[in-house]
Design goal:
- There is one protein chain.
- The chain has 2 domains: 55 residues; 201 residues, Rossmann fold (3-Layer(aba) Sandwich), CATH 3.40.50.300.
- By secondary structure, it is of the alpha/beta class.
- A hairpin with a 2-residue loop joins strand 4 and strand 5.
- Strands 6-7-8-3-9-10 form a 6-stranded mixed β-sheet, sandwiched between helices. It has a 4-stranded antiparallel β-sheet with strand order 2-1-4-5, covered by helices on one side.
- The termini are far apart.
- The structure holds adenosine-5'-triphosphate and magnesium ion (MG).
- The site of magnesium ion has 3 residues, from helix 3.
Length: 327
C-alpha cells in the first residue's frame, strides 16, 4: 500500500514529534490505553522501537542484496550483473559507440573514462533504456533489455538507479519529503519507519541539516548528496553516477567522492561511475572502461589500465595528472 498521500501533514509539515500533525504517535496511542505509565517512558520506548525497526529494515535491504562479489577482474566466473556486448549507436552519420563491450559483476564498481563527447552518458542512457542501441546486446541481471517495452524498462530502472548531475529532485518537496518519496512508493512501511529511514539516509550522506529545506536552496554539491540519499531510498541493486564530482568546488567534489567510496564499502552496491577524474577513479574502480573515438579502447582492471601501454590511454593518464589539481 502506498502511504504517500495520506501521511503528509498540512503543507507537508511534521508535527511536534517529527510526525505529521494529524497522526497520533504509538506512545500517545498506548498512553490512551495505559494511563498509569508515564508518557515520557513510552515515548522513549517507542523511539527505541522505531530505531530498531529502521535498523532492521536497513539491514534487511542490505541482506536482500546479493553478496558482494569477489574482487575478480573481467574474467570472473558467473553471470555479470550488467553486460554490454557489441553495442553500436549512431546519431545521423556519426557513430558514437562502435561494438562496445564491457561487464560489471555484482558488488563491483566500474569507472567509465574518456574525453568529452565519447559516449559515456550515452552508454548510461542505453543501459537504462532511455536510448535504443542500433545493434548489440545489453543485459541486466541476465535479462536482455534492448527488446523490452517501456513497462519492463521501468522495472529495470527501479533496480538500477541513476544519480543525475542536477539531482533531479522534486522542487516543491522538502529534502526529507524527496527522500521519503521512493520509500512511500514501495509501500509497506509505516510513517515512523519512513521518517527513521530518512534520518538514517541523511546521516549516511552527511546532509542531516538540509532535511526541511527545499532543493532550490541547496548548493549543487548538497543537491547531489541528497540525490544519492534518494537513490538509495529506492533500495536499488545498482547505482549509476554521471560525473558526480564535476561542477562543484574541489572540496565539495572531494566530499562527494568520499561519500561514493564509503557507500561502495558500506553497502557493496554494484556501481558505474562516469568520470573524467582519474584520481577519483583510482579510489573506486575495480574495473575501468576507457572510451575513445567510438571504441572501448580499454576494458580491464584498474591496475591493468594504469600500466596499459596504449598511446590513447597514456595520453589520457598524462593529461589528467597534469590538469587536475591534487586535493
Ligand atoms: N539524443 C542525441 N541526439 C544526437 N546526438 C546525441 C544525442 N545524445 C548524445 N549525442 C551526441 O553523442 C556524443 C556523445 O555524447 P555523450 O553525452 O555520451 O558524451 P560524454 O562522453 O558523456 O561527454 P561529456 O564528458 O562531455 O559529458 C556527443 O557528440 C553528443 O552530442
Ligand atoms: Mg556526459
Amino acid at each position: 500500500m502506498s502511504r504517500h498521500k495520506d501521511n503528509e501533514g498540512q503543507n507537508g509539515q511534521a508535527g511536534a514529534h517529527g510526525r505529521p500533525q494529524h497522526e497520533q504517535s504509538l506512545a500517545e496511542e498506548l498512553t490512551d490505553l495505559q494511563t498509569d505509565i508515564p508518557v515520557t517512558d513510552l515515548e522513549a520506548a517507542a523511539e527505541t522501537a522505531n530505531a530498531l525497526i529502521a535498523e532492521a529494515v536497513f539491514a534487511a535491504a542490505a541482506e536482500n542484496r546479493p553478496a558482494r562479489a569477489d574482487q575478480g577482474g573481467p574474467d570472473q566466473a558467473g553471470e555479470p550483473y550488467i553486460q554490454f556486448r557489441d553495442v553500436t549507436i549512431s546519431f545521423g552519420e556519426r557513430k558514437i559507440l562502435d561494438r562496445v563491450s564491457f561487464h560489471v559483476g555484482r558488488g563491483q564498481t566500474l569507472c567509465i573514462l574518456g574525453r568529452s563527447g565519447v559516449g559515456k552518458s550515452v552508454s548510461l542512457r542505453i543501459l537504462l533504456g532511455f536510448l535504443k542501441a542500433d545493434s548489440g546486446s545489453v543485459r541486466v541481471d541476465g535479462e536482455e533489455i534492448t527488446t523490452m517495452g517501456e513497462r519492463e524498462l521501468q522495472g529495470v530502472r527501479k533496480r538500477v538507479t541513476m544519480v543525475f548531475q542536477n539531482g533531479a529532485l522534486f522542487d516543491s518537496l522538502t529534502v526529507g519529503e524527496n527522500i521519503a518519496f521512493p520509500l512511500r512508493e514501495q509501500g509497506g512501511l509505516a510513517e515512523d519507519q519512513i521518517q527513521q529511514l530518512v534520518t538514517r539516509l541523511l546521516e549516511l550522506v552527511g546532509a542531516s541539516d538540509t532535511r526541511e529545506r527545499l532543493p532550490s536552496s541547496l548548493s549543487t554539491g548538497q543537491r547531489r548528496c541528497v540525490a544519492i540519499a534518494r537513490a538509495l531510498a529506492a533500495q536499488p541493486e545498482a547505482i549509476l553516477y554521471d560525473e558526480p564530482t564535476t561542477m562543484v568546488d574541489p572540496i565539495m567534489g572531494h566530499m562527494v567522492a568520499d561519500l561514493i567510496q564509503r557507500l561502495k564499502h558500506q553497502l557493496g552496491l554494484t556501481s558505474i561511475v562516469v568520470t573524467h577524474d582519474m584520481r577519483f577513479a583510482a579510489r573506486l574502480a575495480d574495473l575501468v572502461l576507457f572510451l575513445d573515438a567510438g571504441e572501448a579502447r580499454f576494458f580491464g582492471t584498474l591496475e591493468e589500465f594504469q600500466r596499459c601501454p596504449d598511446g590513447a590511454v597514456q595520453r589520457f593518464l598524462t593529461l589528467d595528472s597534469y590538469v587536475i589539481p591534487q586535493v
